[in-house]
Amino acid sequence: LWELVSRLIQDCQALPAEGSIGTLTDAFVMLVQAHVPVAGLSDVSSRESPELSDLTKVGSLIRTVLDRLRELDPLGGDLSWREWVELFQRVLDETRIPIDEERHQGVQVLDAMTARGRTVRALFVLGMNEKLFPRYVREDPFLRDRQRVVLESTLGYKIDEKLAGHEEEVLLFELLSRSATNRLYLLYQRADEAGRVMAPSGFIAMAMRDPRFVATPEEAVPRRLTQRISAQPSIQDLLPAEELTLGCLLQGHDAGPVLEAMGRDQRLFEQGLATLKISERESPELGPFDGIIGAQASTSSATARRSFSPTALERYATCPFQYFADKVLRLEPVRRIQQDHLPPLTIGSLVHESLRLSYERLLLLKWPDGPLDEARVQSTVHEAVLDRFAAHAASQGTGHALLWTLACEQVTELVAAAVASDQAEYLATGFRPVAFEAAAQGIVQLESDGPAVSLKIHGTLDRVDYRSEPPALRIVDYKFKQGNEISPVDRNLALSAVRGFRLQPPLYARMTLPSLPAATEVQLLFLAPQWKQQISRSTFEAGLWTGQTGALIGQTLTTLIQGIANREFFILPDGYCDYCEFTGACRRHDAMAWWRSYRSPQARVLRKLRKQKVQDE
């Protein structure tokens, strides 16, 4: 190998650095003949075996290309090897090798510009729809045709007129129609892939009125494969194997022989066909492919073993499939979009952490009992917010610097407003913070036809407030909102709890903390920079559990727990689907799955919860 390579290097070094086209071409031929045996490259004809006939043809075409280069030698001038290679490659790209030796006088597939002027017996013109053929032509709004004519007549500067494209299209169709000697077929689409109606081209009516043609009735090609086969059974012999298999299935025939001839896995096909029949059935009953996994245990045993969080139950009440994807399968988005700005969830977390750290430091300064000037409170809050943002930046980064600074200022303003509101609340009610991010648990007794069922609940309380006289305990949960106003769900917590939208307040009211009494109320503290009042509160009284509202909440919880125990994780489409993070795995766009979910008794039960009403107690 080294001897061959070293000899090739020596011959390459002996090549002239530059020269005329003929000189460089002859040098290249001598180099190739010395090192690369190419059949057909030399002028001397030799007998070749049938296996080398194609290589001989390639070699003869290369020799033709080199002869064309030699014809340029009289032009004179010296070229470098780089320039000669570019010229050789350009001529080589213009050379074509026919796929088949025989000349075909049959079907040719050409574009309209290439086919114009040719003489054929039958011509099929596809795409005869408006805005396709003729193409969509309109004037330039900034330089109309009449202005282009003025520029041409006064300045002599030729600018093509846009509307002249109509005449070009008419001329092109005229040339195409005259190309056909026996038959002219004009084909157009009735609708596009989305089902939108498409208008036929005006050229079709023009051809129908042309005396040169004898018009025949329009023939509509069915869109469905079964209808096409019924109209023309002979096309089955021309169908691809995949469409033939599909045709057999749609007509109720056995597709096994076709699959065997194709070498496909027939067992896999039969399994998929059985699955398709189940998923495409016209029955209002939900099945295994609609989220009904099947109960594995009774409701009492399921609730006895597990402990639920209020957020998880709220998610099931919103959409059982969301609960299934998040809590059972624990799915995560395949790819997360990188954003320069902080998403609302991140800002909400920073608000929670900044509030916790601010209150912990203020309590060390004897707040809210002791006298503490406003400047000291503001500086404490500002330092706490900066510390939390710095910790977040160290682990997650900052994103865009300006947006990061604006977010920091916004959180500082909200936390300061929340501290001032809590100071006023302390003076009015006597509640003061005593615990933050406290883990708690509780038990809710649920109504059941059989033995009593106890629902274990757990959660993390953002803040716990205590009042000594009269003794009372209040649980506070922070909510960061970016809307323009408070929603009805957050305004009426009792009604939202009965409907399953806000289960944190009633369940938090049932939680207990060591060495502390039971909560008397649960308060949602809203921090909303876009609201007229940035700090707002909604309260749920724990005493509501003893009245009719408490019974309705218990019934709602029983319904949700029974659905989870029965492992019913069907889809429940609504407006929240537009921003659901599990939409990629959801089948709400499947018409049959959506129909079954809407008509199923399980979905009706959850939709009925959303229509419940409560009376003032």
Q: Could you list some keywords that capture this structure?
A:
10 strands; 12% strand; single chain; 6-stranded mixed beta sheet; 617 residues; alpha+beta; Rossmann fold; 24 helices; two-stranded antiparallel ribbon; elongated
Protein described:
The protein is an alpha+beta fold and 617 residues long. Among the domains are: 2-93, no CATH class; 112-209, 3-Layer(aba) Sandwich (Rossmann fold); 225-279, no CATH class; 290-331 and 431-572, Alpha-Beta Complex (Lambda Exonuclease, Chain A), CATH 3.90.320. Helices cover 46% and strands 12% of the residues. It has 24 helices and ten strands. The protein has helices at residues 2-13, 21-35, 53-70, 81-93, 112-115, 145-155, 164-179, 202-209, 225-231, 241-250, 256-262, 266-279, 299-305, 310-318, 320-328, 344-364, 374-396, 401-429, 488-491, 493-498, 504-508, 548-565, 591-599, 601-609; strands spanning 18-19, 79-80, 120-125, 180-186, 432-446, 453-467, 472-480, 511-512, 521-527, 535-541. It has a six-stranded mixed β-sheet with strand order 8-5-6-7-9-10. β5 and β6 form a beta hairpin.
